[in-house]
Prior knowledge:
The complex is a heterotetramer, with two copies of chain A (361 residues), one copy of chain C (341 residues) and one copy of chain D (591 residues).
Chain A: E1 8-19, E2 26-37, E3 41-45, H1 52-60, E4 67-72, E5 75-79, E6 84-85, E7 94-96, H2 108-118, H3 123-136, H4 152-164, E8 170-174, H5 182-199, E9 202-207, H6 210-216, E10 219-224, E11 227-232, H7 234-239, H8 244-250, E12 253-256, E13 259-264, E14 267-272, E15 275-281, E16 291-294, E17 299-301, E18 308-318, E19 323-328, E20 335-340, E21 348-352, E22 359-360
Parallel strand pairs in A: 3-9, 3-10, 7-8, 8-9, 15-22
Antiparallel strand pairs in A: 1-2, 1-4, 4-5, 5-6, 10-11, 12-16, 13-14, 14-15, 16-22, 17-21, 18-19, 18-21, 19-20
Helix pairs in contact in A: 2-3, 2-4
Chain C: H1 10-20, E1 22-27, H2 31-44, E2 49-54, H3 57-70, E3 77-80, H4 83-94, E4 111-112, E5 116-118, E6 122-129, H5 142-148, E7 158-161, H6 167-179, H7 183-193, E8 196-198, H8 201-210, E9 215-220, H9 221-230, E10 234-237, E11 243-246, E12 249-252, H10 259-270, H11 272-280, H12 297-304, E13 309-311, H13 317-320, H14 324-337
Helix pairs in contact in C: 1-10, 3-4, 5-7
Chain D: H1 16-40, H2 56-63, H3 65-98, H4 104-110, H5 113-116, H6 119-130, H7 135-144, H8 154-164, H9 166-178, H10 183-190, H11 195-206, H12 208-224, H13 227-233, H14 241-251, H15 257-288, H16 307-334, H17 351-358, H18 360-391, H19 397-405, H20 414-439, H21 442-458, H22 462-472, H23 474-486, H24 490-498, H25 503-514, H26 516-532, H27 548-557, H28 561-584
The structure holds adenosine-5'-triphosphate (2 copies), fe (iii) ion (FE) and magnesium ion (MG) (2 copies).
GO molecular function (chains A, B): ATP binding; ATP hydrolysis activity
Keywords (chains A, B): ATP-binding, Cell membrane, Membrane, Nucleotide-binding, Transport
Pfam family, one (chains A, B): ABC_tran
Amino acid sequence: MKRDIMTNELTVDDLHLEYGSGATANPILKGVSMHLRKGEVVALLGPSGSGKTTLLRAVAGLESPKLGTIDIGERRVFDGSKAFEMPAEQRNLGLVFQSYALWPHKTVFDNVAYGLKLRKMGASDIKERVMEVLKQLGLGHLAERYPHQMSGGQQQRVAIARALVYNPPVILLDEPLSNLDAKLREEARAFLRELIVRLGLSALMVTHDQGEAMAISDRILLLNNGKIEQQGNPQSMYETPETLFTAEFMGSNNRLPAKVVQRDGSHVRIDVNGAALHATARGKGGAEPAVLIRVEEVRVSSTRADNAIELPLLTCMYLGDRWECLFKSEDGGINLRAYSKYKLDAGSYWLQLPADKLWVF
Amino acid sequence: MKRDIMTNELTVDDLHLEYGSGATANPILKGVSMHLRKGEVVALLGPSGSGKTTLLRAVAGLESPKLGTIDIGERRVFDGSKAFEMPAEQRNLGLVFQSYALWPHKTVFDNVAYGLKLRKMGASDIKERVMEVLKQLGLGHLAERYPHQMSGGQQQRVAIARALVYNPPVILLDEPLSNLDAKLREEARAFLRELIVRLGLSALMVTHDQGEAMAISDRILLLNNGKIEQQGNPQSMYETPETLFTAEFMGSNNRLPAKVVQRDGSHVRIDVNGAALHATARGKGGAEPAVLIRVEEVRVSSTRADNAIELPLLTCMYLGDRWECLFKSEDGGINLRAYSKYKLDAGSYWLQLPADKLWVF
Amino acid sequence: QAPAGYPADYQKIIDAAKKEGKLVVYGATDSKATHPLIKDFSALYPGITVEYNDMNSTEVYNRFISEAAAGGNTADVVWSSAMDLQMRLASDGHAMKYKSVEVPKLPAWSMWDDKAYGTTFEPAAIVYNKRLLDAKEVPHTHAEFAALIQQPKFKDKVTTYDIEKSGVGFMFMTQDAREYPKFLELENAFGVAKVRVQSSTGTMMERISSGENLIGYNVLGSYALVRAKTDPSIGVVLPKDYTLILSRVVFINKAAKNVNAAKLWLDYMLSQRGQTVIANESKLYAIRADVTGETTSADLIKQIGKDNVKPVPVHPIVLQFLGPEKRMAFLKQWKETAGKK
Amino acid sequence: MQTLALPGSGRRGLNWPRGVVVTLTAIAIFLPLYLIFYQSFLSAPFFMPEKVLGLDAYRFIFDDPDFAMAFKNGLTLATGLTLIAVPMGGALAFLMIRTDLPGRGWIAPMLLVPIFVSPMVMGFGYVVSMGPVGFYSTWAKDLLGFVPWNIYSFTSIVIIAGLTHVPHVYLYASSALKSLGSDVEEAARVAGASPLQVMLNVSLPMIMPALAYAGVLVFFLGFEVFGLVLVLGDPEGHLVLPTYLYKLTNKLGTPSYHLMAAVAVCLVMVTLPLVMIQRWLLKSANKYVSIKGKGARSKAMPLGRWKWLAFGVLFAWLLFTIIMPLTGIVLRSFVQYWGEGVNLADVLTLQHFRDILAEPSLIRGIVNTVLIGVIGGGLAVACYSAIALAMHRKPDGITRALDYSVLVPRAVPGLLAGLAFLWVFLFVPSWLDGMFKASDSGVGTWLSEHLIPALRSIRSTIFAVWLAYSVVWLAYGMRLISTALLQVGPELEEAARAVGAKRGQVTRDVTLPLIKYGLLGAWLMVFLIFEREYSTGVYLLSPGTEVIGAMLVSLWAGGSTDLVAALSFINITLVAIGLGIALRFGVKLHN
Lengths: 361, 361, 341, 591
Ligand SMILES: Nc1ncnc2c1ncn2[C@@H]1O[C@H](COP(=O)(O)OP(=O)(O)OP(=O)(O)O)[C@@H](O)[C@H]1O
Ligand SMILES: Nc1ncnc2c1ncn2[C@@H]1O[C@H](COP(=O)(O)OP(=O)(O)OP(=O)(O)O)[C@@H](O)[C@H]1O
Ligand SMILES: [Fe+3]
Ligand SMILES: [Mg+2]
Ligand SMILES: [Mg+2]
C-alpha cells in the first residue's frame, strides 16, 4: 500500500468547545486547528486537563463544539457556523478508548463483528473479515472468549480490532496504552506503531506521556490549555522547542536560577550563582528569563571543565541501566540532576552545561 | 533521626492466603516471608496478579490469611495456628491506597484529622498536628479544599498525610504513583523517597514498575505467583538476578535464540545463528537454556568487534534523550534492540555483547 | 318461563331480557352473600349472565354517578345499604320508574315512587362477648345498655361505628336520636365509657370476639348473626324497647342498557323465591312478611313486637334529616358528648 | 482497502421515540393530576352542570378542625416515619452489604416482607399479636401484670409505620452502597475507626444522595399511610389525611370530590418544595461525592465484638416488624376465634382455608394478583425502562422536568388517585368524542366511531388497573432502573456509536443487555408492590379482574376477618415461595 502524503484524512479548523453554557461556560478548546494526512500517525500530547480527550471526542462526534469545522476526508462532519453536526454513528471512524470499553456481554468475535453487522454485511463475510483482523492482531484463537477472560494487553488488541474492522479512514486512540503494565506498555507501543504502519492507517493518538508520543508518532501536536502549543516531528519537538512549555514538557529538565548578563543574538551570557556561563536563546523570550537544560545533556566531571558549575553531590538513585545523581548547592538554591553510568562517590563535581544545550527562554 | 537497622518493624512469616474455600479455593499467597526494618523502604515488586496487593492488605488486616504469622513491632497481629486476627482498626498502620480513597465529603483537613479524632486527641492538638503534616507535604494552604477540587498529585499527598498523621510505625503504600501523569510521577517518586527518609518512616510500597521500585527503595522484594522470587537491594536485583524471571522482570532485555555449545563453570560458549559467543552462566540452570542481555549493554559498532554478531538495522525509534534501534536478522529469527545516542543510518552493524553481561539461565 | 302469578305479558320482558343476555349489578353486599342469589336467579332465567360488582357503598355511589355523567357503560341495577346515597341517586333522577309486580306484597314504607325498593330487613343489634359478659349483665333495652356501659369495667371496652366514617352508623345514630327520647343520656354514657369507634363491622366483631371490647352497639344484625353461628363468643341482642331496621335499597338505572334483565332482577329480589334466598342463604333478613324462617322480618317482628320495629323509610325524607347542615350539627354534638376524649 | 460504508446518512434526526415516551408519560402523570386540580376549585363534581368555580373547597377544609388535625398528624407521621426509616434503612444496608453479620443470607428475603404484605393486614396482625388482648400482650400481662405497650397510640402507629418502611430505604441504600468502592471504608478502618464509626463517618455520608431520595420517597409514603391507620388508629380516633379523605366522603352526606381534591392539592403543594429541597440536596451532594464504580474487592468487614449487638438489633427489628405481625396473621387464620380467656388449642380449625377454596372468586383473585404482579410488573418495568432511557445521559430541561414529575403522583393518596384515573378513562373519551364530532370532518366522524369505543372499553380491562398502578409507583420503579443505568459506563455506549450504531441500536444491543440483572431486580420489586396495592385500583376493577388487595378490603368490611387472615396467609406463602425461587435463580435484589 502506498502512502499518499498529500491528502488530508482529517482536518480540524479553529475549533472552539466549552462545557456548560451561559455564565458557567468553561472553555476547553480555544481554537484548535490541525490535520492528519493519509497514512500518518499523529500524537496528541499534553498535560492532564489540556483538552486532548475533548478534542478527540469532538472529532468522533461525541461532544458538540461551539465553533469551527471538522472534515473527514472530503466530508464536512461539523460546521459551527451552519450549526451542522453529523452524529457520531455516521462519521465512520474507528475509536479506541482508554478503558477499552469492550462490551462485557459479547464475545471477542461479537465485539469485533458488531460494526460489520451494523453495516449489513453477510454473516459469512463477517466471519471471514473478523477472523482475518483477529489473526492480524494475534487473537485468532481467542475469538470465543469474553473480555473478562483476557489479560489487559489482549483486551487492548480487541479494542483495536473492533475499531479497525470496517476499515475506517481514520482511527482515533485515547491513551490506548495507559492501562497496561509498565513492561507490557513498551512492547505494546512497538506493536501498535508497527501495526498502524503495516495497515497504512491514519491514526490520531492521545497520550500524556512524551516518551510514548515520540516513540509512536510521525508528528506530535502539543496541546496546552486548549490550544496547540507547538507541532512537529518528535525530533524537532524535543531538540528545538519554541516555548518554555514545550521544552519543559518534552523531556526531563534542570531549571537553573540564573541572571541574564548579556544577550547577543542567540548567544546569551548568564550568571548562575556567581559562575558565568554561555547559553543559547530559544523562543521569543519572555519577561522573566528561564534557563534550562535536559538532564541527559549535563556532563559530570571530577575536574574543572569548560562552561561548568561546581556542585556537591547529594545522592544517587539507581535506575538500573544508569544512575540519576542529584547535586545541590550548599544553600539549596541550585538543584541539578545528571545521569551517570556508575554510582558516583560523595564529593564535589564539575557539571558541564554545553552552551548549545543550555537554553534561555 | 537515627536509623536503627536491627529492629524489625514488620515481620511476615510463611503467610498463606487463598480466596474462596473448599473446592474453589484459589491460593494467592503460598508461603511469603519477609521483614521490614526500622527506617527502611521496601518495594514489593511483581507482575500484575502476583499477589502484591493481597499481601499488603493481609498485613493491614483487610484480608484474612489461612496460615502463617504477622508481627508489627513486638505485637503479633495475626497467627494462623491460633486463629488469632487483630482487626484492622487496632493495628495502627498507615495505608495509602492506589485510588487514594480520600473521603469526598470531608475537607482535606478533616480527611487528615480523622485518624487523630479517633484517637481522642484534643481539638487544638489535632489542628496543630494536622497543619504541621500538611505543611511538611506542601499542602498547608489547601486545608479547606475538598478532594475533588485538587489535582491528582495533590490528592496523593493528602492520602499520604492521612496515613502519616498519627505516626504509625509502618506505612503501607499500594502503587501510590500509578494514578499520576508520567511527568508528575517522576517528581513524585523523588519527593516520596525524600519524605520517607526525612521522617524516618518504615515503608512497604507496592509497585509493578521496576524503575519506580529501584528509584525509591532500599530493598526490593520480587513477588512471583504468590512467592518471593528474589530479594535484595536494587543493584543486586538488577545486576545479579538469580532467576530468569528476575532478570527479565528487572530491565529491558534482548532474548537470543542460542544453542549452548560448552559449559565450563560459569563460563559458557554459545552459538547464535552461526556466530560463536562467550557468555556467563547465571542461576541454577534450567532444562532449556535461555540467553539474554540488557538492551543498554549491547554496543553498536560499524566495524567488526569482539564477541559480536552482525545484524542489519530495521528501524530506529526516537526516545528524546536517545534512540532505540531495532536489528533484525534476514530470516527474522533474531531481534536485538540497542540504544544509540544518534540516529543510525541504514545498513548492517556489529552488535557487541560483552561476555559478562550476556547471561545464560 | 314467567313465574306463577305474574301477568301474561311478563313473558315479553323475559324474552327481551334473554336477548340482552346480561345484567350488570353494582352492589355493596359482599359477594359471599350475593352468590346464592345470583345462582338462583341464573337457574330461574338461564341465559342471563349476572355481572356483580362488589364495592363498598361509597364506591358504588362514586362510580355510578361518574359513569352516568360520562355516558359510558354503567350498572343496570344499583343495590346498596347506604340508604341515603341510594335515595339521593333515585331522587336525582337516576332511577327508572318501574312498578314491580311484587309491590302488593311489600310494606309501604319500603318503596318510593315506583323507583326505589327496600329489599332487606336488617336490625341494628347489640353484640357482646359471651365469655366475658355474664348472662345477667346482658342489656335488653337501650336504657339498660346506657346504664351498663357506665360501669368502670366497660371503660374503653364499648364499641360502635365511627359515625363520621360509616354511613350506616351515622344513619342508625340519627334514627336513634329521633326514636329514643333519652338519646342524650345514651350519648353521655358513650362519653363515660370512652367509646371506641370503628369504621367497619368486621373490626367491631373481631374486637368483641377477642374480648378487646366487651360490647358493641348498633352492629348490623345480619353480619352479627352470621358470625355468631361460627363464633361461640358472640352474643346478639335485639333491643326490646325498639330496634332500628335498615333495608338495602335497589333501583334500576334510568339509562340501563339491559332494562329488561334489570326488571327481572328487581322482581326476582322482591319475589318470595328471591326473598327466601336472601333470608336463608344470604342471611340478610327477608323484608316480605310471607317468608318465614330465622332471618326474616316475620320472625323479627314476632320476637320484639310490631310496634318496636322501627324501619328507616325508603324515602327521600332520609335526605332531609341527613342534609349537610343537620349532619354537621349532629356530628359536632356527638363528638362533644360521646366522642370526648 | 475500501472503507465499508454505513447504510443511510445525513443529519441528526429528530429523536421521536424519546418524544413519544416523554409525551405519554407527561399525559399519564398530568391528566389525572389536572383533573384533581381542576376539581378542587369547583363547588360540585366537575361533571355536574351545577358546578361553580371558586375557593369554597379550600375555605371549608381550612375551617375544618379535623383537617388541621389530620394535617398535623400526617406531618408528624411522615416526619417520624422518615426519621425512623432512613437511619435504620441506611444502617441495615451497611450491615447487610458490608459486614460479616451472621445470617445475612436468610435475612435478605425476609426484609422484603413489609413491602408486599398489605399494611392493613400488617395492622391486623399487630392487633392480633400485640393488641390489648393479643397473645403476646396476654403473655406479657401474665408475666408483668400489665401490658407494657399500647398499640393504638399514635406513637405506636408512627413507630410501626417507620419500621415497616425500613425496607424501602434499605433497597436504595444498599444499591448505592454496592456501587460505592469499599476502599474509602477500608481507609477509615486502617485509620482506626471501628465498624460503627466507619458507618457513621464514611459510608452513610457518602450515600447521602440515595438516602435523600429514599427519605423524600418514604416521606411521601408517610402521607399516604392508610391501611395501618385505618386498623390501628380508629379505636383512639387518630386521623391522618387519607383517613380524613375517607371521612370527608361521609361528612356532607354525599362524597364531596371538591373537598377531597382540595386536600390532595394541599398535599401536592406540601410535597413540591420537598422535592425541590431534595433536588438541591442531591445537587450539592453530588458535587463532591463521586461514586466510583470501582468493583474492587471488598471483604466483608468483620464486626468483631459489635457482631452480636448488631445482630441483636437487627433481630429485634425482624421480631417486631415481621415475626410478630405475621405470627398474628398465621394464628388468626387457624383459629375460629381468639382473645382473652380463649385456649387456642381448643379452637384450631382449617375451616377458613376450606371456605377460601370453596369461593371461586377468591381463587381467581389470587391468580389475577399473581398475573398483574408478574405480567403487569414486567410491562411496568418495560415502561419505566423506556422513561429512564429517555432521561438517560440527557441532562436537559425535559429530563429535569420529568425527574420532578415522577414523584408527584405518589403525593396523591391512592384512594383519590384511583378515582382520578376512573375519571380520566371515563371523560377523556367523551371529550375527545365531542371534539371529533364538532370537527365535523370525515376523519373526525371515523375517529369518533372507531377510536372512541376502543378508548371507552379500556376502562373495564385490567389494563386500566395496570396503568393506574404503574403511574402511582412510577417514582419508585424508575429509580430502581435509573440506578442500574447509571452503572453502565458511558464509553460502552459511545463505543457502539463510534462503530456506527444508531441510538436505538445502542440501546438494544448494548445498554439493555448490560442492565439485564438490574431489570430483573426491578421486576421483582415492582411485582411485590403490585402484589399488595389496592386502593388505586378500587374504581377500575370489575368482576373477573379482582385482585387480592381489593378482596381483602371487601372481606374486611364484611366482617370476615378470619378469611382475611387465611387469604393473607396463602398470599404471603405464595409470594415467599416465588421469591425464594426467584432469588435461587439468581435474580438480585439490588444491582
Ligand atoms: N463533562 C465535563 N463537564 C465539564 N468539564 C469537563 C467535562 N469533561 C472534561 N471537563 C474538563 O475539561 C478539561 C479537559 O478535559 P480532557 O478530558 O479533554 O483532558 P485531557 O487532556 O484528556 O486530560 P487527561 O490526560 O487527564 O485525560 C478538564 O479541565 C476537565 O476537567
Ligand atoms: N476477591 C478475590 N477473589 C478471588 N480472587 C481474587 C480476589 N482478589 C484478587 N484475586 C486474585 O488474586 C490474585 C492476586 O491479586 P493481587 O491484587 O494481589 O495482585 P497484584 O499483584 O496486586 O496485581 P496488580 O499489579 O494488578 O495490582 C489475582 O490473580 C487476582 O485475580
Ligand atoms: Fe395504597
Ligand atoms: Mg483524557
Ligand atoms: Mg494490586
